């Protein structure tokens, strides 16, 4: 068993922590002399944009940085100094006294090992259990984190679980050895709001039950308001402000903190005039329609087919943004992909700009596809890493034989300017850009052929709030200027409130509610829609505290 820290003083004390990375050029200073304390049972949220150093600083404490990193300063876990520990010494601490919940469970979990095996591995290393004892404990842990049928799921592989279930498995692994500190790195990024609320409640319960302190690394200020006791704000490697969660939200002192909070989409906050579709532009012409659309996926090994979309009827009008919302597995992405021919329909009709996408072939299909754009959720995987940014943007024009090479290059430069990126980025490669910059390149690429209908699939789900706000402003400005109709697929209702004209709500493959933004968000008719709205965390610590109390009272 590990030696527990005396609870009389700080559980963790970080002092003057610096992290530098050696590069071919000058060293990169990722963390610049940060200091903070963490008390037993406390939740400290570390917030900031990508590249601010919030994840690097936490990984440095437990030896999870590459050999190119140089770490100085102090991180004391009780009487144990973590900085400078190597090999077996740091491995005894990592997973036992400090555990980490990684941001992306799909990449953190071993795809060729069952989740039970992966939980047992930590238990057998740190607790010297037998295989049978470790498996029994793994079942208990899966039950504790709310995995249904844990005695069966313990034998499942990661690909057989949903995103929310995989995140719960990561939490089960993190708490398996009763750690004193859990580092939760973006534990709810890209999760549906209802699943996100369940994960936050789970972390709250574990903190209360086990007395574990949590370092919560996130850019979601609603999650901060729900979870944190104190907040530390990082900017360009420096800790610019710390304080009680109420003080940070109600009276921020640093300009960057004020900017960060002002950038957060807020469900119910009046939208800026620039985000409203001009009333004279709202069209009645139907740009895209689906009628009795069904999409099935074959079941594995003779199982029943999965009915992803079930008899949906929907229209998108000219010049409007129709938001398609729902949880993972609701069928919203499948529906969006079907409308542009990226997913084959099982039955029903899909009409885009007067052409039946289901039956169209040859030149007719090519001609209508030139008028369609698609913005993918992850630009890092949708942009060719071997092509320059200019070539990525120009590729759809090349496919449709539009213009000369010089004309396509000029069009790419014009689009870079339109999405507010430097024109000389045409010569860069995708890996040389930040996430927000890549997403803007992805938008420029989708607009390169001048589409009349655009499908945007979760285009801002993994972006920092300030970057997200800028991308959304650019998106709406271009939509107003170019006049394309848009099907905006998302689970973020605060973003929907900011830009949508109408909202369609999907649940288990069916369309359960459809109406204007005001009607659906302010006066929802369906219980499921009301549950979705109630689960959205507000970036208001006082109000979110009240909501959490009501949630927990309801569960009790």
Description:
- The structure is a single chain.
- This protein is α/β, with parallel strands linked by helices and 556 residues long.
- It contains 22 helices and 20 strands.
- The chain has a 6-stranded mixed beta sheet, sandwiched between helices. A 6-stranded mixed beta sheet has the order 16-17-18-13-19-20, sandwiched between helices. The chain has a 4-stranded antiparallel beta sheet with strand order 2-1-4-5, covered by helices on one side.
Content of β-strand: 15-25%
Arrangement of strands in the largest sheet: 6-7-8-3-9-10
Structural class, from helix and strand content?
Answer: alpha/beta
Q: In DSSP terms, counting alpha (H) and pi (I) runs of 4 or more, how many helices?
A: 22
Overall spatial form: globular
Alpha carbon gap, first and last residue:
33 Å
What summary fits the major beta sheet?
6 strands, mixed
Strand runs, count:
20
Helix content: 25-40%
Rg calc: 25 Å
Mean pLDDT: 87
User: Are there runs of 5+ residues with pLDDT below 50, and where?
Assistant: 1-6
